[in-house]
Amino acid sequence: MPKRIDEQVLHQRHYTEIRDKVANDPYARSLGIRLTKFEETMAEAELVVQDHMVNAYGTAHGAVIYALADHVMSVASNAHGKASVGLSTNAQFIQAAQVGDLLTARAVETKRNFRVGFYRVDVLRGNEVIATVDGVAYRKDQYFVETE
Q1: Confidence class of residue 16 from pLDDT cuts 50, 70 and 90?
Q2: Is residue 142 packed enough to be buried (19+ CB in 10 Å), middle (13-18) or exposed (0-12)?
Q3: Which of 59, 86, 89, 130 has a C-alpha 20 to 30 A away from that of 111?
Q4: Residue 100 to residues 48, 51, 97, Cα–Cα distance (Å)
């Protein structure tokens, strides 16, 4: 039987390597998403809504809000150095965002086992929740950091 890996120790030992990998997502960078917090079971990132990010009604496109939420879920689900990908999500768009708004997404891990992780993401404008996403991530067999 393979040796069990202590993922909390793995997160602490490889913190910088893991953070740098998940923070440098090319798509997130192209949107101007900036990782602001990275912990073992929580991640937070920011985005300022730009002119080119709006829909036909002049408000932030839902895809932009979702991309911010998806990014922090990805960061949180990969925080232990184990390759993880989104399996399913359910998004609720509560309020519109405007050009110039600073949006913050916070992903919190609610449960994790060997194969899946469950996450709650809140997207905020200031202290006001404008969207929520509940998600499940599939945790692959591979770690992207050294486990020995």
Answers
A1: very high
A2: exposed
A3: 130
A4: 6, 8, 9
